[in-house]
Amino acid sequence: MKKIVIASNNVGKLNEIGVILTPLDIEIVAQSTLGVPEADEPHFTFIENALAKACHASRYTGLPALADDSGICVDALNGAPGVHSARFAGEPAAGPAGSRANQDQRNNQKLLELLANEMNRKAHYYCVIVLTRHAGDPQPLICEAEWHGEIVKSPRGSGGFGYDPLFLIPDLRRTAAELAPGHKNRISHRGLALAALAAKLRGSCIVDRVSWTTFRR
């Protein structure tokens, strides 16, 4: 069976990745189920962090690994929070208060406070996907995408995760958190990057270079 380890412990990301890659008949496994610790993300660019995470997961498991690094970049903040999006309001607190939802609320609140007096509320989500065949892969597959919108003044919607309640898509007049999951997956930064990856896999971009046995353990 074809198998790829996903270098993430973020449930929202895992769900989105699973939905989009399922039609390819590739088994995806979360790194936590294989005992892989989280990788360090010391870099200042999304692509370097994604590559570090994918190589880390491949090194621990001996499997091909997929990692994404993504975040929101706000024009008025010179691109911040950027690669620091997940921990914009600081490290998660220990215990129940440090849940993903609580961290998202803290991050969102900090963003709103910083933009309180700003007229320019343009922002975009960015996502880069890296797929490594092994830890030393000299030619990883890389796909990227952006999703442009604006930051609203108060949260709207209960879906999604991260900054979705604040991220307005002007053409739809809805925030990302107000979209149905299937709709979001078709138009989001991660959805578009994963769709590009799926198209390359389906179009045998990788199959031409290596046998599908590479994806079998």
Q: Please, could you describe this protein's structure?
A:
This protein is an alpha/beta fold and 217 residues long. It has one domain: Maf protein (Alpha-Beta Complex). It is 29% helix and 21% strand. It is built from 5 helices and 7 strands. It has a 7-stranded mixed β-sheet with strand order 2-1-3-4-5-6-7. Strand 4 (122-132) and strand 5 form a beta hairpin. Helix 1 (11-21) packs parallel to helix 5 (189-202) and helix 4 packs across helix 5 (189-202). The radius of gyration is 17 Å and the shape is globular. The model is unreliable at 204-217 (pLDDT under 50).
In short:
This protein has 217 residues and is α/β, with parallel strands linked by helices.
Main beta-sheet strand count, sense and barrel state: 7 strands, mixed
Give the helix proportion (percent range). 25-40%
Instruction: Name the helix and strand elements from N-terminus to C-terminus, one letter apiece.
Output: EHEHEHEEEEHH
Give a count of the beta strands, DSSP E runs of length 2 or more: 7
Q: Order of strands side by side in the largest beta sheet?
A: 2-1-3-4-5-6-7
> What are the low-pLDDT stretches, counting only 5+ consecutive residues below 50?
204-217
Shape: globular
Strand residue content: 15-25%
Taking all Cα atoms into account, the compactness measure Rg is: 17 Å
For the record, the CATH architecture stands as Alpha-Beta Complex
Question: What is the rounded distance between the termini?
Answer: 8 Å
Overall residue-averaged pLDDT value: 87
Helix/strand class:
alpha/beta
List the domain count as a whole number. Answer: 1
**What is the name of the CATH class?**
Alpha Beta
Q: What's the CATH topology label?
A: Maf protein
